[in-house]
Amino acid sequence: MELTQWLNDRKIVGLDTNCFIYYFEGNKAYENVLEKIFSAIENGKCKGITSVISITEIIIHPLRKEELNLAKQYKYVLYTFPNLLLQEINHEIAYYAGLLRAGYNIRTPDALQIASAILNNADIFITNDTKLRKVKEIEVVLLSELSGTNK
Question: Which residue range forms the structural domain that includes residue 45?
Fold first, then answer.
């Protein structure tokens, strides 16, 4: 199945921070697949979800390079991107992330991202972190798989 149709069959797509980083920084390996993912979300074919942790993680590189305006632009895009929910961390998400962290021994930011996706009824969680494949509460899809096959 072609990627665009595959995405249209999903109502809510959870996105790890690396999706945004690769897209904003123009990572050639994932450029085509990310363009299709973000286009589907922007055009309302599906909705996207990421947690506010993405802000923390995405501004690190520009801030280290003292590119304050770029960091602000990244933050603005996350806040204003059509059909993308930037999920705040609340008690329910924090607790569920703790369960995921304890059960799968994953890092706290990853647990918060996945918990945000699960508790917002995401169909899939897209990442490029192979360690997250062990989470069974949601289908975890790797960008490398999406870009390496014509799914």
Answer: 3-145
